[in-house]
């Protein structure tokens, strides 16, 4: 069992006559004798010892979500919730508009035109959104599909480096196929043209079940992407970046059993009340996407994967961290130092029509509608 956090006791310095966090003893001329040498000093109660700063472990692999003090955790939760709310407030209209763009791309007419009488159908204007998007989509990805998996080349620096170059080329070709680069690029491009910005996370992840490790490429919808502030062109200048994703409760429990996550049951209790457990177990026969799994284990849990700058140890220097966070439960499943040498969130942004000094680009839908 993890020992509770106990900050070091504040010690009295007789040279400076200062006690940090406590009241200094009265002077001799006030009729009070100084404490005897070697006498134990009075320690303040734990409530007065708590601090809102803390120094996390020095490595970037340790999950210290259970070690973080309560006041530091509360300050961090407030910081994250504030940034998420700020981002939602600034992008709410854009999120609603993106939903309309996808409806137009799929050929769904606006609500005001769906109940039009047949006699007025001749006046209906159908935009060429789908044709324009599909045409540009094919032009962008054609060069990548035309060359197959050989989308790069490795040249030796000398005649003795031919073997090394060949090995590097084979290694990169293996991972291009492994991360399904062409499929991810296809989705990234389509999201870029319809939503204005294509987002993909390129991270180095370990497979918790097979034990293998390697690069991982996942597409992220702009509707699930968060960036604070928005007035940046590159993610290097952002202070708070991440995306929303879902995972099943069964997988989260498996990760916790392997030591990767903590507080999973605390998150589960937020989403699975007694009534929800009963209602959810009644729909077990309808869960075709997860045959053989218990209904509760297959319950999707929304989470945030965040990369952010934060001063945790109170030295007025911002450090970069990575966290898995449940917003509804206000609970961390994992907190660690930023795992990469380059202090840049591991996302790829694709914008065909960029906007100066803004993280998002223009949508092709808006240009042709």
Mean pLDDT: 76
Query: Which structural class matches the secondary elements?
Result: alpha+beta
Assembly type of the shown chains? single chain
Measured distance between first and last alpha carbons: 61 Å
Order of helical and strand elements: EEHHHHHHEEEEHHHEEEEH
Report the total helices. Answer: 10
Strand content: 15-25%
Low-confidence stretches: 1-32, 43-49, 275-292
Characterise this structure.
With 369 residues, the chain is of the alpha+beta class. It is built from ten helices and ten strands. The protein has a five-stranded antiparallel sheet with strand order 5-6-7-8-9. Strands 4-3-10 form a three-stranded antiparallel sheet. A two-stranded antiparallel sheet has the order 1-2. A hairpin with an 8-residue loop joins strand 7 and strand 8.
């Amino acid at each position: 069992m993890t020992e509770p956090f106990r900050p070091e006791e504040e010690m009295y310095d007789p040279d400076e006559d200062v006690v940090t966090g406590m009241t200094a003893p009265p002077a001799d001329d006030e009729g009070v004798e100084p404490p005897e040498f070697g006498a134990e000093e009075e320690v303040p109660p734990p409530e007065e010892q708590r601090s809102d700063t803390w120094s996390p472990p020095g490595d970037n692999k340790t999950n210290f979500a259970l070690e973080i003090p309560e006041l530091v955790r509360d300050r961090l939760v407030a910081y994250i919730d504030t940034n998420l709310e700020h981002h939602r407030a600034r992008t709410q209209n854009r999120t609603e508009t993106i939903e309309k763009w996808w409806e137009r791309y799929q050929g769904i007419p606006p609500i005001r035109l769906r109940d039009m009488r047949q006699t007025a159908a001749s006046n209906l204007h159908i935009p060429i959104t789908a044709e324009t998007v599909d045409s540009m989509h094919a032009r962008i990805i054609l060069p990548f599909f035309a060359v197959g998996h050989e989308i790069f080349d490795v040249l030796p620096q000398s005649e003795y480096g031919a073997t090394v170059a060949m090995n590097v080329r084979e290694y990169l070709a293996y991972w291009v196929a492994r991360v399904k680069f062409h499929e991810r690029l296809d989705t990234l491009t389509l999201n870029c043209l319809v939503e204005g910005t294509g987002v993909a996370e390129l991270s180095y992840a370990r497979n918790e079940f097979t034990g293998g490790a390697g690069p991982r490429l996942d597409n992220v919808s702009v509707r699930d992407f968060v960036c604070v502030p928005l007035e940046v062109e590159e993610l290097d200048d952002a202070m708070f970046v991440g995306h929303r994703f879902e995972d099943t409760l069964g997988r989260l429990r498996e990760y916790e059993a392997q030591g990767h996550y903590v507080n999973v049951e605390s998150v589960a209790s937020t989403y699975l009340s007694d009534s929800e457990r009963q209602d959810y177990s009644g729909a077990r026969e309808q869960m075709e996407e997860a045959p053989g799994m218990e209904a509760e284990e297959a319950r999707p849990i929304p989470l945030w994967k965040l990369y952010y700058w934060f001063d945790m140890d109170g030295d007025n220097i911002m450090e970069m961290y990575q966290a898995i966070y449940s917003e509804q439960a206000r609970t961390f499943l994992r907190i660690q130092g930023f795992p990469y040498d380059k202090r840049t969130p591991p996302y790829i942004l694709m914008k065909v029509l960029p906007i100066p000094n803004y993280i998002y680009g223009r949508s092709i839908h808006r240009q042709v509608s």
